[in-house]
Amino acid sequence: MSRAVGRGAAVIEGRPLHPFDAARGLPRRPGTGAASRCQGCGARSVGLCAPLGPAALDDMAAETERVAVAPRTPLFHQGDDASHVYTLAEGAARLTRVLPDGRQAAIGFRLAGDIMGFTPATEHAFGAETLTRATICRVDRRRLDAMFRRHPVLERRFLELCAGELAATQDHVLALGRLTAQERVAHFLLSLAEAQERRGRRGPVFDLPATRTDIAELLGLTLETVSRAVSALRKRGWIKLHGLSAFEITERPSLAALAAGEGGA
Amino acid sequence: MSRAVGRGAAVIEGRPLHPFDAARGLPRRPGTGAASRCQGCGARSVGLCAPLGPAALDDMAAETERVAVAPRTPLFHQGDDASHVYTLAEGAARLTRVLPDGRQAAIGFRLAGDIMGFTPATEHAFGAETLTRATICRVDRRRLDAMFRRHPVLERRFLELCAGELAATQDHVLALGRLTAQERVAHFLLSLAEAQERRGRRGPVFDLPATRTDIAELLGLTLETVSRAVSALRKRGWIKLHGLSAFEITERPSLAALAAGEGGA
DNA sequence: AGCGGCCATTGACCCGAGTCAACGCGACGA
DNA sequence: TCGTCGCGTTGACTCGGGTCAATGGCCGCT
Predict the structure, then answer these.
(1) pLDDT tops 90 at residue B8
(2) What pTM, to 2 d.p., does this model score?
(3) Chain B residues closer than 8 Å to A158 by CB
(4) Is B174 in contact with A100 (Cβ distance < 8 A)?
(5) Pick from B101, B162, B172: which is nearest to A173 by CB?
(6) Residue range A14-42: average pLDDT?
(7) Which of A166, A188, A194 to mutate to test the interface with B (most CBs of B within 10 A)?
(8) Do the Cβ atoms of B261 and B178 come closer than 8 Å?
(9) CB B119 to CB A167 under 8 A?
(10) A17-42 mean pLDDT
(11) Is B11-168 in CATH node 2.60.120.10?
(12) Which CATH fold topology does B179-259 show?
């Protein structure tokens, strides 16, 4: 999956060294292997590179660094210089922030094809970390701008992704502002399922790449409340759990109605 | 401010007719008056048109419709065809959604220069309505795309605005997910002040173009809780109210610390 | 096979914000 | 001038979700 970068050095299990720094200095072999590296990319059809032809893809490959990282690896921290933009080629990640007094919050989950770390500010307002084993591409902001000039279709695509991210974040605002705990959990499970379906996943069983604590931090709840809400949905027969990292939606219409906020009406 | 469109017909006080439909059929006089219409625009330095030269501005003026609208005028509704993009030239507006059971939520406030209604979907997920008397520009999505091709700098600017909106929305997610009622109100007042400062406003007194109910719907609270929080901040001597539509920040560092989430630590 | 750590679940109690209700005040029209 | 209406404020009570704590299952390690 990440052959072009070199295995051992890229896959790091929680060492203090940043994964991209670890890959620094390895032979980049610009231009070579672009086909093998990008052509078979898991995010090829949904991500930033979707509209690119073979030549542009080759150009892109030469400008980006790609690494495979372990679960729970930070990609960048809040306050870091926002000099790069990241795309998630494979796996799941989340954006987080910790408040001065220690409260922890997640502002969103990201799946294959999503972009991370694009901001108008000079530093990252949020940190990002992987939830699962993942493959990450990193581009320098200035190089990306240059790419935009060479391939206008790339800029158009980037704007689309940005708008999609905005829409998802707005949806999340609504959920945090007006939904109850159980509604939020229903909303989360449903949107996670839809995100996986958009990426080609079929069937009523989906991946759940998050612990109760992760979900709680995303939904503005505590892990106990999430656990109770999941149990309640299970007892109603609307969802089923398959181990700790997969779930099944057994009563989709009911779950959707709850997630949309059909309280009593 | 909106002379080119014609006064009487454009300023509507809560009639069922949509403001842009009311302006339909009026003489557009393409090309004329672009200088007077756009040159002195309140959002000229912060909005979408900021990087445009005189010629491009003229082009833009010919492609957009502009109306002045009364406070509390809906611009579009959730579910409407997302065929246009709106920019707020002057005044304040908010994006709202009403849940099936009647719960009302606002996902954001927008001020001069901000864009509204840009979404990857075919319909608007949220409605928009003015809070104050406002001036609105509307562009057809397809015409905007064509403009992007004629003026690449416009697309770059649009992407910047989109990223700014994303950053603001993410910040809002954090507030809703992890801040207490009083912290949220402090956060809101501070970000409203900062938004006005970014637009050139000076001094510790700022506009408050929202009722307690508006603020509550934005912050995921009730109007009573907002009122109590405002009173508490006033009693601490951190803010002062000037009538119903202006407020003063008298202890900015304290307010900022509270808004950032410095609970006990 | 036995042990220990991590994660999830469940229960009992508490608190911050929601709910319901009364009241004050300024704007506006009769 | 007075009555009314919309908005804001404040109080008393309720309740959803947070907090604290005990228990149990799964998995990897030895």
Answers:
(1) no
(2) 0.91
(3) 159
(4) no
(5) B172
(6) 59
(7) A166
(8) yes
(9) yes
(10) 61
(11) yes
(12) Arc Repressor Mutant, subunit A (1.10.10)
